[in-house]
Amino acid sequence: MVTENLKKFTTPVFPFTAIVGQEEMKLALQLNVIDPKIGGVMIMGDRGTGKSTTIRAIADLLPEIEIVKDDPFNSHKSDLDLMGNEVKKAIQNNQSLETEFIKIPMVDLPLGATEDRVCGTIDIEKALTEGIKAFEPGLLAKANRGILYVDEVNLLDDHLVDILLDSAASGWNTVEREGISIRHPARFVLVGSGNPEEGELRPQLLDRFGMHAEIRTVKDPTLRVKVVEERTSFDQNPMVWIENYETKQQELRDKLVAAQKLLPTVDIDYNLRIKISEVCSRLDVDGLRGDIVTNRAAKAHAAYHNRNKVTVNDISSIITLCLRHRLRKDPLESIDSGDKVSKVFKEVFEIED
């Protein structure tokens, strides 16, 4: 009964399985949910193409997680990499911990956010007078074990983007002030979105995102009408819509959970890894991040399809998403970076059109 009452007071979220089109973005988000170590998604596209709707929908779709009750970092009760220091101390002292289930955290980072708001602050006065580390958690603490969404990431201060990417890569956030240091877990799926008309991210920041999805406005009139009608009928009666899609939502939820469990057993043949690296080499991709992310995403894609062996099809489905944003931009080149990745992939893997 309590859950039913809570549902009435929560803002209804458009079901993920009801979203029409935008397959690239949906695939990238699902693969990052299966393996957050892929490194997040950068979604670039026109205004009004459902970027925010889709990201909120994936967060709403995910199963609940168990956290230590009243813990500011959503600490896991047994995984050391996902728990704060207070919980670690309590476990070492054999204290019993009360837990609760919550929805996967979905944290929005506002454009005007300060570093203190993102990372958290240390109350120096309290630390000096009372001798305790008084820490006010920031958005990175709230996002632990969840999704951190940055809309208009290309308009965010480079320094803040650096902090976000460092935390997303390491899984930890460190706050230092006046010789006092606090470190807490910050493992989250980083999702950035933006409109390319408003400016691109610097290449070295763009490279740190695991995947890059490009979305365009739907041109087909029939599909456009379908999208408009579905959105209108959802707005008129959201609860009926959510109930109608509950079976599909649960099926996808189960599929993602099964893929997460299968992922550690997924294997990728040595000759496929060699070919992935050859594609990266031919495309002149700097560093090895492209190779690593493509391997991870291919494994997640195989797990998503309930297989423990990566196939060429898995690599074909994700390689453009993993590499297109890592190519050096040549203003004189007429071929799109995504098409270029696809062309080289077909040459290396000897696939005919």
UniProtKB/TrEMBL annotation:
Keyword presence, Chloroplast: yes
Top EC class for this record: ligase
Residues annotated as signal peptide: none
Organism: Halamphora coffeiformis
Catalytic activity field: protoporphyrin IX + Mg(2+) + ATP + H2O = Mg-protoporphyrin IX + ADP + phosphate + 3 H(+)
Gene name, Swiss-Prot/TrEMBL: chlI
Any one GO MF annotation of this record: ATP binding
UniProt family annotation: Belongs to the Mg-chelatase subunits D/I family.
EC assignment: 6.6.1.1
InterPro entries referenced in this protein's UniProt entry, alphabetically: AAA+_ATPase, CHLI-like, ChlI/MoxR_AAA_lid, Mg_chelatase_ATPase-isu, Mg_chelatse_chII-like_cat_dom, P-loop_NTPase
One term under GO cellular component: chloroplast
Predominant subcellular localization, coarse grouping: plastid
Keyword Ligase: yes
Pfam families: AAA_lid_2, Mg_chelatase
Record protein name field: Mg-protoporphyrin IX chelatase
UniProt pathway annotation: Porphyrin-containing compound metabolism; chlorophyll biosynthesis
GO biological process, one term: chlorophyll biosynthetic process
Localization terms from the record: Plastid, Chloroplast
Domain AAA+ ATPase: residue ranges: 37-219
